[in-house]
Design a protein that fits this description.
- The complex is a heterodimer of chains A (about 375) and B (about 325).
- Chain A has 15 helices and eleven strands.
- Chain A has about 375 residues and is of the alpha/beta class.
- In chain A, the strands form two sheets. In chain A, strands 4-3-5-6-11-10 form a six-stranded mixed sheet, with helices on both faces.
- Chain B is of the alpha+beta class.
- In chain B, about 30% of the residues lie in helices and about 25% in strands.
- In chain B, helix 2 runs parallel beside helix 3.
- The chains are: A alpha/beta (about 375), B alpha+beta (about 325).
- At the A-B interface, helix 1 and helix 3 of A face strand 13 and strand 14 of B.
Amino acid sequence: MLRPDPYRDKKTIGALLRGVGERRTPCRLMEVCGTHTMTIHRFGLKKMLQDVGVGLVAGPGCPVCITPNDIHEAAIRLVTERENLILAAFGDMTRVPTKIGSLQKSAAAPGSRIQIVYSPADSLLLARRHPDKEVVFFGAGFETTIPGIALTAAQAVEEKLGNYSVLSAFWVIPPPLRAILESGRSRIDGFLYPGHVSAIIGPRAYDFVAKEFRRPGAIAGFEPADILLAVLSILDQIAEGRPRVANEYARVVSPDGNPKARAVLERILEPKDAVWRGLGRIPKSGLAFRPAFAAVDAEKKFGLTLGRETAELPGCRCGDVLKGLIEPPQCRLYGQACTPEQPHGPCMVSPEGACLAFHKYGTPS
Amino acid sequence: MTGKVSLDLGNGGKAMRDFIAGRIMPAFKNPLLSPLLDACHLPEGIAFTTDSFVVDPPVFPGGDIGTLAVNGTVNDLVVSGAKPLYLSLGLILEEGLEWSLLDRILKSIRRAAAKAGVRVVTGDTKVVRRGQGDKIFINTSGIGRIVAAPDPARIRPGDAVIVTGPVGDHSLAILTARGDYGFQSSIKSDCAPLNALLPFWRSGVRWMRDVTRGGLATVLTELAEEIPYPILLEEVEVPVSAPVRGASDILGIDPLFLACEGRAVLIAPAAKAGAILKRLRALPVGRKARLAGRIQTEIGRPGELILRTSAGGLRLLEPLTSELLPRIC
């Protein structure tokens, strides 16, 4: 049995939910982060909140999902067309389906292979251990994971490891929020901001949402009580008519975020316009290696042309899911042609993907 | 299913069930095989089962491939309502295996068999070239005498779901023994024979399964599909040890899908559940048994396994889909 855990026990959650109900403020909120989506479904919060008038919709907060197909295809081509190359990646990245298959199901070129790693540091070990092979780390992430990958790449430069590079899919969170709000296609009354990304970038990064778009928001942690505290804060902001960026995850997120981590990003990377799955090209929404780090930039090293807008696989509506336009079950393929065993789109692959969260943690009828 | 066999096939979850339904049943269908019980009930009161063991590493905290090979087959007989009597022992060895390791494993088999009250009565040994196997694989078949007829058709609303002990220890013991994740723990496999559960067939228990690959959630989703009522599981009542809870949280896996090798789930009438729990808790294998759920009719639809989460929300539990940890048994 579980020991009562104040962040997830029935008594606390019940009291918070009553608080939500008493505010009688029907609204539709976006949880930006994929890990929030998972908590919300895993603990059955979605239905509980829906019953008291608060709708939650998943946002573009899953790095595996928002990385467009051309980058996934580039990774597949690297390992299938080049000999003696080790393509290191996090497990989920190897299962994303594209029009040329997935990494997992690809046949590597002679002497080449795909290696699943749990940390970017492991990919650097591979490069040291196999000086006769090219090691490419397929690194996708937001502000939380990018500093670790960037530092690993910088370490390779320092060691003059000529056989190491990073195929980067680096994304920053605030620009797509602006893109979603500017498009005006999805009604969103407020945002649950990601906890770990905010620990790096700090609450002020979202000020524009409150000031320019008059939308309330709150940074949330990853336990059920964290989510409900953030929802309560947003409802209060709506009632007061004073949108702001509340920090309901103060035990981790400091008012300045993490300046050291940001300095790492600043030193090694620079902003670039980037194409997101579903959202298209968004100004300054990605990060690229600065010229001084060109040696570890796989895009330059292998002369890849990335950044084109690529189409989804036929029928796949991951793009609309990521924009908050539809919920996964509204996709025709969901649960039929697209399942966790045979995913047709990335949102059914990643544990942070909305389709997988819906499928894995279904609501009883 | 296109192309080639994937690891998912061996996880005890959906892919394996699809494989059995799509390829095994059409080829071998017969009235004895069709119920797909853990052990088959043959004429003359005989029960028969078989199981293969490929665990990596072959020695792990709390046991080795030898203890698993005995207990896995013994437990399949027990939960199928049979008293285990005889085992066969098939060894597939890789050239170069250390004698010291093989001797250790044979000793474990002897001890485990004595503890479970079974005798190894026939066997076979094959050796494959280096690199064509991985140290040691074992197959055991088991014969037992039928003492009860498990029958899901007797399950009724209100029946209790009893879990005999903390879940997930075996999977996590294997995982940490491999060292893939770079952390250590004190978690030991729960590998044990479940013979002590046999008398419970006479105390009104309607159905039993050992909680192996796919975990408690997969075992109960399969039961839910067989009976005309939904099953409600209470997350806070499912026994999970603190180290397993902690390691699962770090790794992002759910203990409800982790395998055990010495735990079972029992379905018993509500009126008898209290007495059964009390007797279970007096046994070494059932010391931490809990009433963790109910067969019910108020929420959900027939076929559904519903979890009431610690937060009080409700969600469905699906059978395990992708392979969490290959070669755990």
